[in-house]
Design brief:
This protein is of the alpha+beta class. The protein has helices spanning 2-12, 18-48, 55-66, 110-117, 136-141, 174-213, 232-237, 250-255, 264-271, 312-358, 364-390, 402-419, 439-458, 514-524; strands spanning 74-81, 84-91, 121-124, 146-154, 157-166, 218-221, 227-230, 275-280, 286-295, 301-310, 398-400, 423-427, 435-437, 466-473, 477-484, 528-534, 538-546. It has 14 helices and 17 strands.
């Protein structure tokens, strides 16, 4: 028996009686359970930490574990933010003594004392003594008799304070306080990690929102040119309809084949620098393509960002401006030439009239002089119309007649059309109402429509070529129709003919700006141009303009 007691004594270090042995053994087991629970709590804090778990759930888990070894009934967490100590979480929720989210006043605050000093505090709430801290009345109201407050340390600074309240007083030894401080430090690590994660997450969201909000197409591609990501503008611009684009390369999308040696992507991949190209897509859209290298922290390129901007309208506008400049220069030149021609033409007309007075009407010379006089008058009319057409200061809206515009245009190009063996059928409504507009700009529309009709007839080899010019009046609008029986226009091309630079003519015959400029003038007058065409049978262009509104007196 004595040998057995000695063996037990050596194993457990207990040399007292059997009762003392079991008492001290139970105490040792309880201590071991306590230590094990403490380890479980620390482990629970680290294990339960994840971004999806709320801080309330975490505090709930911690309190339930702590209650196995300490008589606690309340946990609260206050965070230092922008110089303010703000209650962030309290568990249970019915043990709140301040409004969560509202800063705690610094003066007389127990929480601020711990936050400022960085030292923990065990505060005994005594209802019979003076209220020592600003939180004391609330502690009493909640039925708390003891409050432990620990600073939350993170990366060498105070992040906030952890408060643990109980309804009864208990003696905490150094190991207990050290454990609770360690628990507070682990919480601080969790809070800091959540903060850092949220910063990264918010930055990622901001970047993604910026990426998606850009109105121009943006794409991220790998070094093989495969598209990894693109924003909504890219999907709509290239008509991808939300399909998976990972099997499409950037060059295939831009150039309609797998690889383009001179593409901006290939240049960026080779030089690791920004590249730029202006590309015309298969649908005639003009784009500026910028490609930028994506580098990692080792300065190694692992991808390319492609930024694509549609500049079709910009280029067309620039071309229209250039064309307007050319037309202005041509107008000035025409005006100068017209003035120079007027002087000799005046002499021709005057001398012809003098000779006609001396010649007998029955003589052949009189017939020749009459032809000279008529041709000279026609030249004079042409010069006068050229001068009118070239005057920029007359491009002001005023009351004018579409019939007058037609007659002036026919004096310019009518002879040219008839010389091409094309019959002109003119049907002008004498009752057509006036309109508000610039007669010179309207003449430009009519000239474009007539010359287009002439060109369409020049391309066919048949007899009976005909252009019909017709004006009609309505209640709200005036219409001018130019109809030919030429080649006609294919249905798929009808949508394109008003686009700038779109032309079916040879390079020396047209720029593709005539119909585009004409439509712009019509819209500036509040009208439009309609077209009807049938291949092989001809085309009809109808200019529609609003009638001039007459204001009644007193209205």
């Amino acid at each position: 028996m004595s040998d057995r007691l000695q063996m037990i004594e050596r194993l457990v270090g207990v040399s007292s009686s059997k009762i003392n042995y079991y008492t001290e053994l139970k105490s040792t087991i309880d201590e071991m359970k306590k230590k094990n629970t403490q380890l479980e709590i620390i482990n629970e804090v680290m294990r339960s930490f994840n971004i999806d778990m709320s801080m309330d759930d975490m505090l709930k888990n911690i309190l339930e574990k702590l209650q196995q070894i300490f008589p606690l009934k309340r946990l609260s967490l206050s965070i230092l933010k922008n110089g303010k100590l703000i209650p962030a979480n309290v568990y249970p929720h019915d043990y709140v003594h301040v409004d969560v989210g509202n800063p705690i006043p610094r003066e007389g605050s127990l929480y601020w004392k711990v936050a400022d000093s960085g030292a923990s505090c065990v505060y005994l709430v005594n209802m019979n003594e003076r209220k020592e801290y600003s939180e004391t009345p609330a502690f009493e109201k909640l039925g708390l008799r003891q409050v432990l407050v620990f600073p939350l340390y993170g990366k060498g600074r105070i992040l906030g304070v952890l408060s643990l309240g109980s309804a009864q007083q208990q003696d905490y030894d150094g190991e207990d306080l050290a454990f609770l401080q360690q628990l507070s430090d682990q919480l601080a690590v969790c809070i800091e990690n959540v903060r850092l994660y949220n910063e990264v997450l918010n930055s990622k969201k901001e970047w993604e929102q910026t990426f998606l909000a850009v109105a121009d197409p943006i794409m991220q591609v790998d070094l093989n040119g495969n598209i990894l990501r693109c924003n909504g503008s890219a999907y709509s611009f290239f008509h991808l309809n939300g399909k998976n684009v990972s099997h499409i390369t950037l060059d295939e999308l831009l150039y309609r084949h797998q690889a383009e040696p001179d593409s901006p992507f290939q240049e960026t991949r080779k030089t690791k620098e920004m590249a730029y190209r202006e590309i015309t897509l298969h649908d005639k859209t003009i784009c500026e393509v910028h490609t930028y290298p994506i580098m990692n922290e080792k300065e190694e390129m692992y991808g390319v960002i492609a930024y694509i901007k549609d500049v079709t309208e910009k280029r067309h506008f620039e071309a229209r401006m250039m064309q307007s400049g050319k037309l202005a220069a041509l107008g000035e030149m025409a005006a100068g030439v017209a003035h120079e021609l007027n002087n000799p033409l005046t002499a021709i007309l005057g001398n012809t009239q003098l000779l006609m007075r001396k010649a007998n009407e029955n003589e052949s010379s009189h017939v020749l002089l009459t032809d000279i006089f008529k041709c000279s008058k026609r030249c004079q009319d042409i010069i006068r119309n050229l001068l009118t057409f070239s005057r920029q200061d007359e491009y002001l809206f005023q009351t004018c007649s579409i019939n007058e515009a037609v007659e002036q245009v026919l004096s310019l190009v009518g002879y040219q059309i008839r010389q091409s063996h094309i019959e002109l059928e003119i049907d002008l409504d004498s009752n057509v109402p006036f309109i508000d507009g610039s007669i010179q700009q309207l003449e430009q529309i009519i000239i474009n429509l007539l010359l287009n009709a002439k060109d369409a007839l020049d391309e066919v080899d048949k007899t009976g070529k005909e252009i019909s010019i017709r004006t009609e009046s309505g209640a709200e609008e005036v219409t001018l129709s130019v109809i030919d029986n030429g080649t006609g226009i294919d249905p798929e091309k009808l949508k394109e003919i008003f686009h700038p630079f779109y032309t079916t003519k040879e390079a020396v015959k047209g720029t593709g700006l005539g119909l585009s400029v004409s439509l712009g003038i019509a819209e500036a007058h509040g009208g439009t141009i309609d077209v009807k065409s049938e291949p092989g049978k001809g085309s009809a262009f109808i200019l529609r303009l609003p009638v001039k509104k007459i204001r009644c007196k007193g209205g």
